[in-house]
């Protein structure tokens, strides 16, 4: 009788806890990605799924392997196709004073991406940080060596021009090579590459940012890559959308697929050592040792230190705390010198 009475009391206490508790505890296996073995989550959070490389909510869990595409940024290649779908875009100088993009897609692979341009070794290293399928049209000697060695799974337009890659007859070469979504899928099947995997997410916050005295206003960000104004970049903040627009040569960047202006949430401008290494003007760029930079979001910016963490460029506060990104598209601009960046 005494045991039965105790059982009734225990059950009653459990029922009361379930009725009044507003949070539940989900136990997660303790591993490198989840250093703590318990995670307290709100009930409303349980059913929310976020894209690993944009932090935006999605309807169902995605194990799409990231796809990293070399995209042409010569003025005759604009407007480019597919960039509004990218989760992360790196902008880095190639030869001369013209940049190229490494556009990384995971949450939404567009039907057409390009124009696609040739690879350099530092873009491959960055793509490998996401274990991405790498897509290019052409290559430097070092980039070819890396792809031929199997360092990265790749599809090269030099091999698949006219099959997996298609030419746009309204544009002139080399600014008219595009990869179609169906071409990516066919290439993956032909080369027996994996096309699904569990993607390691970037670190995002789902809370509203709080700006203290370490933040300054950033309504406009200007990056001088060249004496030719067509190659320079201006980001302009919109209070109404809480996003940045991208402007080159006085033209707001749009996606040629849908005509929509690019909406950029996070901007990292990072300083790295650039060196000319051959007579063609090819560069080596130090991606390994980190350095100074700016993190720009919601019309504000702060001084940061950037580090290469497992192949990804990650921002840290000056006291060494990793910065969580806001959900949305992220651009990472490499520059030789921060003095070439003006923020106002």
UniProtKB/TrEMBL annotation:
Q: Which residues form the DUF3048 domain?
A: 53-194, 223-332
SUPFAM superfamilies associated with the record:
YerB-like (SSF159774)
Which Pfam families does this chain map to?
DUF3048 (PF11258), DUF3048_C (PF17479)
Gene3D superfamilies xrefs: YerB-like (3.50.90.10)
Q: What is this protein called?
A: Lipoprotein YerB
Source species = Gottfriedia luciferensis
The record lists the lineage as: Bacteria, Bacillati, Bacillota, Bacilli, Bacillales
């Amino acid at each position: 009788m005494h045991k039965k009475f105790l059982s009734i009391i225990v059950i009653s206490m459990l029922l009361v806890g379930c009725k009044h508790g507003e949070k539940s505890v989900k136990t997660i296996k303790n591993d490198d990605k989840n250093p703590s073995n318990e995670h307290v989550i709100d009930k409303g959070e349980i059913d929310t799924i976020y894209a690993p490389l944009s932090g935006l909510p999605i309807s169902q869990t995605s194990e799409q392997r990231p796809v990293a595409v070399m995209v042409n940024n010569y003025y005759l290649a604009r407007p480019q196709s597919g960039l509004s779908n990218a989760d992360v875009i790196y902008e880095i100088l190639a030869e001369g004073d013209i940049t190229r993009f490494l556009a990384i897609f995971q949450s939404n692979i567009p039907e057409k991406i390009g124009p696609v341009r040739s690879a350099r070794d530092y873009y491959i290293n960055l793509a490998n940080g996401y274990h991405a399928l790498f897509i290019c049209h052409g290559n430097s000697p070092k980039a070819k060596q890396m792809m031929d060695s199997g360092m990265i799974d790749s599809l090269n337009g030099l091999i698949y021009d006219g099959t997996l890659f298609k030419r746009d007859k309204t544009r002139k070469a080399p600014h008219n090579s595009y990869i179609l979504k169906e071409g990516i899928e066919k290439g993956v099947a032909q080369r027996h590459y994996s096309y699904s995997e569990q993607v390691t997410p970037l670190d995002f916050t789902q809370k509203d940012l709080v700006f203290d005295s370490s933040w300054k206003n950033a309504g406009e960000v200007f990056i001088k890559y060249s004496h030719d104004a067509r190659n320079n970049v201006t980001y302009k903040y919109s209070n109404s959308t809480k996003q940045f627009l991208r402007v080159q040569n006085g033209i707001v960047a749009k996606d040629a697929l849908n005509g929509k202006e690019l909406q950029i949430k996070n901007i990292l401008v990072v300083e790295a050592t650039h060196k000319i290494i051959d007579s063609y003007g090819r560069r080596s760029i130090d991606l390994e040792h980190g350095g100074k930079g700016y993190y720009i979001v919601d019309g504000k910016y702060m001084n940061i230190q950037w580090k290469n963490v497992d192949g990804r460029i990650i921002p840290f506060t000056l006291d060494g705390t990793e910065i969580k990104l806001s959900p949305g598209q992220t651009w990472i601009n490499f520059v030789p010198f921060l003095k070439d960046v003006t923020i106002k």
